Every structure is written in C-alpha cells, then in structure tokens.
Amino acid sequence: MPDSATIRSSTFKAIVVGGFSSGAFDLIFAIIYYGNRGATTVGILHSIAAGLLGKKASNEGGITTAILGFGLHFLISLSAAAIYLLASRKIPLLRNQPIPCGVAYGAIIYFFMNMVVLPLSALHSHAFPPPVVFAPIAIHLFGVGLPIALAVARYSK
Predict the structure, then answer these.
(1) I want to staple 125 with a disulfide (CB 3.0 to 4.6 A). Which of 13, 61, 118, 149 is the partner?
(2) Per the structure, how many domains does the chain have?
(3) CA angle, 52 as apex, 132 and 30 as ends, to 5°?
(4) DSSP result, 11-78
(5) Structural domain that includes position 22
(6) What is the pLDDT of residues 87-110, one digit of tens each?
(7) By CB neighbour count within 10 A (0-12 exposed, 13-18 middle, 19+ buried), where does 50 fall?
C-alpha cells in the first residue's frame, strides 16, 4: 500500500498534468480557432479575464489583464482536473474507463461553462441553449476532458 507522501505526490501529478495539458490544448485551440475569425491572443486572454472583471475593464487593462486571463484559464483547468480526481476517488469507473469517462467529462465541462459559469460571470452571458458548434465541443471532449481523465488514470493512486 502506498504511503501518504506517495499518494500526495501522485495526486499532485495527476492534477498538474491533467490541468496543464487540458488548459494548453484548450488555449491553443482558442488561439487558432478564434484567431482565424479575427481574434488576437491578447483579446482571447482579455475575454477570459472579462469573466471576472467585466468586458470594459478587461479590455482597458492591457497586458496585465491578458496575464490575469492566462492565469484564470489555467486555474479553471487545474480545478477541473482536481474535481475529476476527487470524483474518481468515490467512483472508480472514472479511473478504470478514462476514455469514455473523459469524453463525457469534457461534455459536462462545456455545458457547465456555458450554462452556469458564463451566466454567473461578470459577462453575464446567457447562452441557452449553449451554442452547439462542433469544433469548440470537440476540443472539450478530446482536448479537455480526455487529457484530465487519462492523467488521473495514469498518476492517481
């Protein structure tokens, strides 16, 4: 049986690997996808910070709010990984079947962000039903939920 230091280390690794990989995939996707639609990287990061600050304050904050948006983005992805890991402690299926569970978790994250987080944010975005656009949903299924589940399955004890 692993000792408590090993468990803490594997828990930390699962959250860090899952959170940072999913956050990186999602952010790279956003830069490419929305960049092809005219958005800049700084603008994308401002839109993330706008959830906390509001659109006007975020856009006026320059590089500072872009950095805040970057940090918030990874805070959210690390939180999503931690939630999945904690749930996997109670529901072993999440560790034992990471591919279908990770894809399902990606869908849950997509809809939770659009139906709960954005409406409660400073943006007060009310997208109901949430926009059903294939590429953003696909990145959440395969680039957000799946890496989190795979990291938890690989590193969590």
Answers:
(1) 118
(2) 1
(3) 40
(4) HHHHHHHHHHHHHHHHHHHHHHHHHTTT--HHHHHHHHHHHHH-HHHHHHTHHHHHHHHHHHHHHHHH
(5) 4-155
(6) 999 999 999 999 999 999 999 999
(7) buried
First-to-final CA distance of the chain: 10
Q: Which residue has the tokens 């699962």?
A: 14
Task: Give φ, ψ of 46 to 5 degrees.
Answer: -65, -40
Asked whether the beta carbons of 55 and 123 are under 8 A apart, the reply is: yes
Residue 60 and residue 127 in contact, taking contact as beta carbons nearer than 8 Å: no
- Higher local confidence (pLDDT), 6 or 40: 40
Residue 123 corresponds to which amino acid?
A: L
Longest Cα separation, the chain = 54
Q: Provide the 8-state DSSP code for 1.
A: -
Which residue is associated with the tokens 């954005």?
118
pTM: 0.90
| 23-42 b/e (C-beta count within 10 Å ≥ 16 → b) | bebbbebbeeebeeeeeeeb
- What is the per-residue pLDDT across 9-48, written as a single tens digit (0 to 9) for each? 899 999 999 999 999 999 999 999 999 999 999 999 999 9
Q: Is 130 helix (H, G, I), strand (E, B) or coil?
A: coil
